[in-house]
Amino acid sequence: MPEGHALHRLARLHQRRFAGAPVAVSSPQGRFTDAAIVNGRVFTGASVWGKHLFHHYEGGPIVHVHLGLYGTFTETPVPMPLPVGQVRMRIVGSEYGTDLRGPTACAVIDEAQASAIVARLGPDPIRRDADPAPAWERIHKSRKAIGALLMDQSVLAGVGNVYRSELLFRHRIDPYRRGRDIAEVEFADAWTDLVALMKVGVRRGKIVVVRPEHDHGAPSYAPNRPRTYVYRRAGDPCRVCGTPVRTAELEGRNLFWCPTCQV
Fold first, then answer.
1. What is the rounded distance in angstroms from the CA atom of residue 263 to the CA atom of residue 182?
2. Contact 88, 106 (CB under 8 A)
3. What's the whole-number mean pLDDT along residues 233-256?
């Protein structure tokens, strides 16, 4: 599932491609039945909160998109070829078009519904108006493991498995430590680091987490991906201490950590 930085990159791209002009919106697949509501309207902007993308249109309609595990946007210069595969939504502007396939959600909503979605989410570290206080309030009262809390979108919006694993390693925090046992200074330092890391992700389009002094040795976990400290490195030696990286399942998601560095 794309993490929050990827959604912010998409919003900025769609803003550049479509904002300020009418766009043609259709559903070649036929499942986005509300496409006609926004078809031909002026695309006024795109915004993001966590992993939720909002396309805003003149007159008030908002298209809410959640990519989920399989959703993707693909961009093509106009004229666009005929749709291939199950295209849920097609947007065509004056110079570019984009096809959306496989999202968990794609629906026209109003401002009140958009506000209700945002109200269920924790702060998004990438947003300029991000306030870490609600996240800290939830974390320091919780008996749940911090590794689980960081993946809870109602606590922090936009954090996924890579940022979760890597942030905890960078701050030497055992992912099984209870939220209530995290010191306020630890949370503040981790929040500041997370904001910086996710903003790098927006700029570069990649999750870059390994410090220069550790960015050598074993290759990344997949081609064309930057190195990670622990994510998808189970059994490999820790880049700092050499201890084999461990993995386990925590609330349905694979967790990665160094049992020596993270105590």
1. 12
2. yes
3. 97
186 membership: H or E segment, kind and range: helix 184-204
Instruction: Give me the catalytic one of 9, 51, 233, 239.
Output: 51
pLDDT tens-digit readout, 74-111:
999 999 999 999 999 999 999 999 999 999 999 999 99
- Catalytic residue status for 2: yes
Q: What is the pLDDT of residue 1?
A: 80
Distances, alpha carbon 137 to alpha carbons 2, 51, 80, 107, 178, in Å: 26, 21, 48, 32, 14
Residue type at 97 in one-letter notation: G
pLDDT at 236: 96
Residue pair 244/236 in contact (Cβ under 8 Å)? The answer is: yes
The pLDDT of 232-260, averaged and rounded, is 97
DSSP state at residue 241: T
Fold exhibited by the domain 4-119: N-terminal domain of MutM-like DNA repair proteins (3.20.190)
139 phi-psi bin (left φ>0, alpha ψ -120 to 50, beta other): alpha
Amino acid at 197: L
Of 144, 178, 225, 253, the active-site residue reads 253
Report the top-level CATH class of 133-257.
Answer: mainly alpha
